[in-house]
Design brief:
This protein has one domain: Amino acid/polyamine transporter I. The chain is built from 18 helices and no strands. The structure holds phenylalanine (PHE). Its main location: membrane.
Length: 447
């Protein structure tokens, strides 16, 4: 049998898995969803879901992946042969397909700003002018489709080359750079006039605004930012050598992710309030605010370009993981097929994503269930498919894997105590299924 590629170090694995986790979810999506759901209360509910559902599920996917050491579909076939549980892997592939189709639209928006910032088209405007320049640009169908296509091309190139070579290398510089640039951004944002309004918006919870929709979106967001429920983390951990600690990796990924979520919130909301913009502006929020904050820094455009490069990188490392899980299943680990399928699937995703890209131009009046095409794709992935996939993974781990075998796998390379393992198992076996079903039914108005 062909030797599977492995990550050379735990750091390499963590960087790739963290690269998948940290992306548009924390930086773009969190501020806009929190902005639409009242701020502080959303943050608290999101953090609770991250600890009681996201983290345990991340660990569950790691355990499945390293036990089976196969791709998203074959991992389930390996652990539960002759059953239909591998459907979870297929669901993950379908979810990632839809996910990348709209994710690439936002990836394209980053490229738009990068081009504008480099060519000097963004100097000295007011925040309202930045917002209208941006609206104007994405209202051009040719521009939005071209940048979306470029984003997908980058993704295809890297995935066609293979996991280790493609992903491991650059992450070790980009993640620290992202953190440093964010810290600079936060310092500027919280020292703006009127920043206090944004800080209290983010940290003073107003639970009177919480509805069942808020709770579902906070849950969806906790899965989205950690890339759980779609078998991506199963695929990545299948490349991890046996002597590395899974709990440690899971904790560090959750920690980094929360840090970026908080930094993003602290950069965006003070600025939104200071500039008198609306926190509930939706998917465009981040893109309205960013250039104004940077324009108020010395050498602002230089920092803005640097920020956009690492932001683009963060979005790309997430995009790689979405395409990677589909391609690794279809190409069955063969290099020649990998290349071909990376192109075929990548182009198919682009075509499927065209209506999402056009949701801000030609199709801006088209709505289905009261949502634009873009919003519908995002909503379906984040609030239906990911929670459903997570539910199935929790059930799979509790009914199809032996408790003793789970403990064995989690103990490799780590000193996890039985009591801690027990808490994890309890969360996965009882809390996760009950809570996910309850939140989903709640939105349907069952109680
Ligand atoms: N976690 C990624 C982000 O926050 C999105 C993602 C979800 C990536 C699922 C892969 C799989 O941007």
């Amino acid at each position: 049998m062909e030797q599977r590629e492995q990550f050379t170090t735990r750091l390499g694995f963590i960087l790739a898995a963290a690269g998948s986790a940290i992306g548009l979810g924390a930086i773009w999506k969190f501020p806009y969803i929190a902005g639409q759901n009242g701020g502080g209360a959303f943050l608290i509910i999101f953090l609770i879901f991250t600890f009681i559902l996201g983290l345990p599920l991340l660990l569950a996917e790691f355990t499945i992946g390293r036990t089976a050491q196969q791709d998203a579909v074959n991992s389930f076939k390996h652990i539960a042969p002759k059953t239909k549980w591998y459907g979870i892997g297929i669901l993950g592939m379908v979810t990632c397909f839809i996910l990348l189709s709209f994710y690439s639209v936002i990836g394209g928006w980053i490229i738009i700003y990068l081009i504008k910032a480099i060519t000097g088209g963004l100097n000295g405007l007011s925040s309202q002018q930045y917002a209208s320049v941006f609206e104007h640009t994405i209202a051009n169908p040719v521009v939005s489709l071209s940048v979306q296509f470029i984003f997908i091309l980058f993704t295809i190139f890297v995935v066609a080359k293979g996991v280790q070579k493609g992903i491991e290398r650059a992450s070790s510089i980009m993640m620290p750079a992202l953190t440093i640039l964010f810290i600079i951004l936060v310092i500027r944002a919280i020292t703006l006039d009127g920043a206090a309004g944004g800080i209290s918006f983010l940290f003073q919870p107003d639970f009177s605004k919480v509805t069942s929709k808020t709770i579902l979106e906070a849950m969806g967001q906790s899965f989205f930012t950690l890339s759980v429920g779609v078998s991506v983390m199963i695929t990545y951990s299948s490349y991890l050598p046996k002597q590395q600690s899974l709990p440690k990796s899971a904790f560090s990924i959750v920690g980094m992710n929360i840090a970026i979520v908080l930094l993003a919130g602290l950069a965006i909301f003070p600025a939104v309030f200071s500039f008198g913009l609306a926190p509930d502006a939706g998917p465009v929020l981040l893109f309205h605010v960013l250039p104004t904050i940077f324009s108020q820094l010395p050498f602002g455009m230089v920092f803005f370009v640097a920020f956009l490069i690492v932001f683009l990188f963060a979005a790309l490392t997430s995009a790689f993981s979405m395409l990677e899980i589909i391609v690794s299943v279809i190409s069955k680990g063969e290099q020649a097929k990998r290349k071909k399928w990376a192109w075929i699937i990548g182009i198919a995703i682009f075509i499927f994503g065209v209506p999402s890209a056009l949701s801000y131009s030609l199709l801006s009046d088209f709505t289905l269930f009261d949502k634009s095409f873009f919003d519908l794709a995002d909503y379906t992935v984040s609030n239906i498919l990911m929670p459903f996939g997570s539910l199935l993974i929790a059930v799979f781990v509790s009914v199809k894997m032996k408790k003793s075998a789970l403990f064995e796998e989690l103990k490799r390379g780590s000193k996890i105590k039985y009591s801690v393992f027990h808490v994890w198992f309890f969360l996965i076996r009882y809390i996760a299924p009950i809570l996910i079903v309850a939140v989903m039914l709640d939105v349907l108005g069952v109680w």
